[in-house]
Amino acid sequence: MFAIVLAVLVLAPFVVVGAAAFSGSWNGVFPSDPTTSHLRDALSGDELASLTVSLQTALLGGLLAVVFGTWAALASRTASAPLVRFTDALYHLPIAVPSVVVGLGLLVAFSRPPLLLNGTKWIVVIAHLVLMVAFTYGTVAAALQRTDDAYADVAASLGASPARVLWQVRLPMLRPAIVSAASLSVALSMGEVGATIMVYPASWRTLPVSVFALTDRGQTFVAAAESLVLLAVTVVLVVTLDRLRGRAVER
Amino acid sequence: MTVQLEDVTVHFGRTCALEGLNLTVAAGETVALLGPSGSGKSTALKAVAGFVRPSRGRIRIAGVDVTDVPPAKRGIGVVVQQYALFPHLRVADNVAFGLRAARRPKAEVTRRVAEMLDMVGMSTYARRFPRELSGGQQQRVAIARALAIRPPVLLLDDPLAALDAQLRADMLDELQKLRREVPDVAIVYVTHDQAEALALADRIAVMRAARLVDIAPSADLYAAPPSAFTASFLGGANLLPVEVSADEVRVAGHPLAGVRAKEGNNLLCIRPHAVRLGSGGLPARLLAAQWRGASSRLTCAIDGLPDVRVHIDVPAGGPLPEVGAQVSMVLPPEACSLVPAGTR
Ligand SMILES: Nc1ncnc2c1ncn2[C@@H]1O[C@H](COP(=O)(O)OP(=O)(O)OP(=O)(O)O)[C@@H](O)[C@H]1O
Ligand SMILES: [Mg+2]
């Protein structure tokens, strides 16, 4: 019984969005006038631009988040305990703080020289980076906790320099965690609205923000079609990254 | 090349994992560090390898102080407790790791890897990943990887601990053979198993609670243990309280002819296989008998010493007394020695 309730709650929105995306009007209980024109709208002009913006933001922000998160996790292995606790808290702040607040903070911080990023795409990328880095740091740090220091020790005893130990032992062994951190942050970034809506310039409107704006203007059907596009692209991205991870684990 | 540890002390936060260890291992010599779990054996090894920094003391290799030298510059071969084969590298690449780190020419790397894999009998597994190997096979690869860089010193941390009994016996054979392949290498062999120490080591260093208790050539340590702890840890000796008066040693009031008295608070040490059941010995009661294949282990209590358990190993085949029966226990004087009671 609970399973049915849960299924309805979880699946209903998807079904409704899917149905709305392909209907010309929805006046009664069921949608009518099936059409693909909304989908065509969603894949043209401004809306298509939104898709590429979202992809670029997610990949760039996700990539940076993975780099910074991994770096921080590796550094915290050797840092002193109080420093580690401090950075731990710092990195987890974006999870606790509402994303709108993060957006507002960035807007205030980067709106005047010398850090004038407001109005550029970089403020969006940074917002995503700040929000995702907590997850990548957490994922990689947890994996690092599980790996034995013995591997790095043995590599060093075999004459490997610290850089060689990092690139040929530590990072390859962390690859599954790094890939899953990447797919997590890309997925989250594709759907991020809260902070983005505070900081985005007109030239850099992500897909979820477009959906929000369209809905706001009453163009619910196009918004639904665009949501469908967002969903499809995110699923494809995550599945692709997961494949990479699968291969990493197999090796 | 010799390894010298001088007053080496290691702390982890407040815990002292190694306290003032003095130890010298000569080129071509095998020294076993033997001790119960947590006695500081691995810590001693890690200090020599450079994985932990001693809070006091010096470590010298071939006379050169390496205390502040990072592990990568020490040139020591290390096999750690769980082997730590790099899971993302094939067997051949694991063995080649140290050679590539030293930027040896490709042809030499290939040749040396083949040679090492051949030495440990793993040539046919060169293309496998570590997780496709059994425990014993991983062990061989770990040894090949450590020896590939021709280290003058090889450290082995309880290499057989993770293997089952049968494989352990086989690998012990292999290690003895391997020892002859590298006659000049100084080997430190950590183990908690006295049989491994006796089979492989020239000298045995017995450790307990972060300290070195005794160190001596294996045969001497076994024949005449200098302390009660070593006597029981190495070979599971029986330790009996004695009364000493005027050159006479007595156990539970019975004089033992032929055992020379010694100054101080001593215990009588005798190995389980040296005790015999016969006539004219100490009266005792048989409490339990355990058949172990080639021998049986009897547990007895001497009359008058109800709290002391005496173990006796008798060869299988002979008649055994009933459990609960009265027996007579003979302690041949040549097998008896007195050891300082100290702390057990
Ligand atoms: N990294 C560490 N941090 C804190 N304490 C440690 C650390 N490594 C070892 N110790 C402590 O130091 C003591 C000695 O440990 P060590 O690993 O040397 O024992 P061991 O003789 O090798 O035991 P085993 O036979 O179980 O491997 C133990 O009490 C252990 O708890
Ligand atoms: Mg150990």
UniProtKB/TrEMBL annotation, chain A:
<keyword id="KW-0812">Transmembrane</keyword>
<protein>
    <submittedName>
        <fullName>2-aminoethylphosphonate transport system permease protein</fullName>
    </submittedName>
</protein>
<keyword id="KW-1133">Transmembrane helix</keyword>
<keyword id="KW-0472">Membrane</keyword>
<keyword id="KW-1003">Cell membrane</keyword>
<feature type="transmembrane region" description="Helical">
    <location>
        <begin position="220"/>
        <end position="241"/>
    </location>
</feature>
<dbReference type="GO" id="GO:0005886">
    <property type="term" value="C:plasma membrane"/>
</dbReference>
<feature type="transmembrane region" description="Helical">
    <location>
        <begin position="122"/>
        <end position="144"/>
    </location>
</feature>
<dbReference type="InterPro" id="IPR035906">
    <property type="entry name" value="MetI-like_sf"/>
</dbReference>
<feature type="domain" description="ABC transmembrane type-1">
    <location>
        <begin position="51"/>
        <end position="241"/>
    </location>
</feature>
<dbReference type="Pfam" id="PF00528">
    <property type="entry name" value="BPD_transp_1"/>
</dbReference>
<keyword id="KW-0813">Transport</keyword>
<feature type="transmembrane region" description="Helical">
    <location>
        <begin position="177"/>
        <end position="200"/>
    </location>
</feature>
<dbReference type="GO" id="GO:0055085">
    <property type="term" value="P:transmembrane transport"/>
</dbReference>
<feature type="transmembrane region" description="Helical">
    <location>
        <begin position="89"/>
        <end position="110"/>
    </location>
</feature>
<keyword id="KW-0997">Cell inner membrane</keyword>
<comment type="similarity">
    <text>Belongs to the binding-protein-dependent transport system permease family.</text>
</comment>
<dbReference type="InterPro" id="IPR000515">
    <property type="entry name" value="MetI-like"/>
</dbReference>
<feature type="transmembrane region" description="Helical">
    <location>
        <begin position="55"/>
        <end position="77"/>
    </location>
</feature>
From TrEMBL, chain B:
<dbReference type="InterPro" id="IPR027417">
    <property type="entry name" value="P-loop_NTPase"/>
</dbReference>
<dbReference type="InterPro" id="IPR008995">
    <property type="entry name" value="Mo/tungstate-bd_C_term_dom"/>
</dbReference>
<feature type="domain" description="ABC transporter">
    <location>
        <begin position="3"/>
        <end position="234"/>
    </location>
</feature>
<dbReference type="InterPro" id="IPR017871">
    <property type="entry name" value="ABC_transporter-like_CS"/>
</dbReference>
<keyword id="KW-0813">Transport</keyword>
<dbReference type="Pfam" id="PF08402">
    <property type="entry name" value="TOBE_2"/>
</dbReference>
<protein>
    <recommendedName>
        <fullName>ABC-type quaternary amine transporter</fullName>
        <ecNumber>7.6.2.9</ecNumber>
    </recommendedName>
</protein>
<dbReference type="GO" id="GO:0043190">
    <property type="term" value="C:ATP-binding cassette (ABC) transporter complex"/>
</dbReference>
<keyword id="KW-0067">ATP-binding</keyword>
<dbReference type="InterPro" id="IPR003439">
    <property type="entry name" value="ABC_transporter-like_ATP-bd"/>
</dbReference>
<dbReference type="InterPro" id="IPR050093">
    <property type="entry name" value="ABC_SmlMolc_Importer"/>
</dbReference>
<dbReference type="GO" id="GO:0005524">
    <property type="term" value="F:ATP binding"/>
</dbReference>
<dbReference type="InterPro" id="IPR003593">
    <property type="entry name" value="AAA+_ATPase"/>
</dbReference>
<dbReference type="GO" id="GO:0016887">
    <property type="term" value="F:ATP hydrolysis activity"/>
</dbReference>
<dbReference type="InterPro" id="IPR013611">
    <property type="entry name" value="Transp-assoc_OB_typ2"/>
</dbReference>
<dbReference type="GO" id="GO:0015418">
    <property type="term" value="F:ABC-type quaternary ammonium compound transporting activity"/>
</dbReference>
<dbReference type="Pfam" id="PF00005">
    <property type="entry name" value="ABC_tran"/>
</dbReference>
<keyword id="KW-0547">Nucleotide-binding</keyword>
